[in-house]
Amino acid sequence: MHIKVIVSVSALVGVASAQQAAWGQCGGIGWTGPTTCVSGYTCTYSNDYYSQCIPGTAATTTTKTTTKATTTSTKTTTTSTNPSPTLYLCGDSTMAKNGANDGATDGWGNQVAKYFTGITVNNQAIGGRSARSYTREGRFNTVIGLVKAGDYVVIEFGHNDGGSLSTDNGRTDCPGTSTETCPVTYNGVAETVLTFSAYLENATKSLKAKGAIVILSSQTPNNPWEGVTTFPGTGSPPRFVAYAETSAGRQGATYLNHWLYSMDLYKRLGASATNAVYPNDHTHTSPTGADHMARSFIKGLMCGSNALKNKINTSAASVVTGSCL
Ligand SMILES: *[C@@H]1O[C@H](CO)[C@@H](O)[C@H](O)[C@H]1NC(C)=O
Ligand SMILES: *[C@@H]1O[C@H](CO)[C@@H](O)[C@H](O)[C@H]1NC(C)=O
Q: Angle at Cα 228 formed by Cα 223 and Cα 230, nearest 5°?
């Protein structure tokens, strides 16, 4: 990844403004927040849509002590455990810090760190994004540029991936589960739209090539108790749930059925407790609801085989309920 270091003009002329926290966004098209970083971090150009506060001067080829042991007799490449791994989260508002940015909601990625130990959570989720727009804006590239061997990456999309391309909103994916393409013109620019699976798998390949361990997680459900008194059951997930599973299988990534574990939790919580965590709509949860979604992710992780489960703080996660599904 090519990296330019941005020196903020306001910093040079001494204009007082809040400094962005570690790993936070500090620039890009449409960005109106802080453009300088806290001490020890530098605002670093990632793409036209995103500059980020990165430790030191720039995340150029970091030579951290990660070693790669390749067995000669088989085609298996084993990457040694990263001594201080990072868990990167790629997703939409249901995962992002502050959720829908309405002062009432939060994303599960902002609640999950307390259930881990020995790993740093770096939440790169951002509201309104789909697998397509996250790709087009270079946000996967940002994470691909940051990951080191032995880091973990969770990718979870779906809420913004549906809809019709006849009135293209820049987020809708091409229908299908494979190499289908849809030519569109978005914002006056010709674009070949790919399927949800193609975006997920393209990112997964690049992340795995850098030694990252990828988890494709299905989207969280909308409030299943909205307007009903009988739990609707788990027979009709949104189509992106199955797409994530298919893509994980094709790419040798871990699939975590976050949708199913969340539905199970909501079923056990019941109607009133579930409705209470949806303050504004049926998609975005309160911080309490985001914590529920963090717990259902942890439950799915505990029930699976991905090595990230070894980073669960069992004491903190003792509040996580439910059975393996
Ligand atoms: C594949 O992923 C890379 C890395 O995110 C990105 O630069 C590229 O545009 C993607 N290709 C397609 C066809 O989406
Ligand atoms: C694990 O979680 C408990 C309870 O939240 C907390 O007190 C403790 O500091 C955590 N331990 C580690 C090693 O993170």
A: 105
- For residues 35 and 173, state if they share a domain: no
Query: Is the same domain home to 263 and 136?
Result: yes
HSE value, Cβ hemisphere, 13 Å, CA-based, for 77: 11
Cβ neighbours, 10 Å, residue 191? 15
Report which of residues 38 and 147 the model is more confident about: 147
Binding site membership of 313 for ligand 2 (Cβ less than 6 Å): yes
Average pLDDT score, the chain: 88
251 to each of 142, 200, 216, how far by Cα in Å?
A: 20, 10, 10
Considering every ligand atom shown, identify the ligand nearest to the alpha carbon of residue 313 and give its number.
2
> Do 145 and 273 belong to one domain?
yes
pLDDT surpasses 70 at 127: yes
Q: Is the CB of 101 under 6 A from ligand 2?
A: no
pLDDT on residue 166: 95
| Statement: the pTM of the whole predicted model exceeds 0.85 | no
At a CB cut-off of 8 Å and minimum separation 6, what does 235 contact? none
In this prediction, residue 4 carries a pLDDT of: 45
- Determine the pLDDT at residue 9: 35
CB atoms within 10 A of CB 187: 7
Ligand 1 within 6 A of 140 CB?
yes
3-state secondary structure (DSSP) of residue 44: strand
Tell me whether residue 62 is in a domain: no
User: Ligand 2 pocket: which of 315, 318, 319, 320 to mutate (most atoms <8 Å of CB)?
Assistant: 315
Domain boundary among 55, 76, 95: 55
Phi then psi for residue 320, to 5 deg, are -80, 125
Range of the domain at 24: 4-55
Unique residue bearing structure tokens 């003792």? 318
Altogether, the residues listed in the chain come to a count of 325
Q: What pLDDT band is residue 57 in, cutting at 50, 70 and 90?
A: low
Mean pLDDT value across residues 48-69 = 52
How many domains is the chain partitioned into structurally? 2
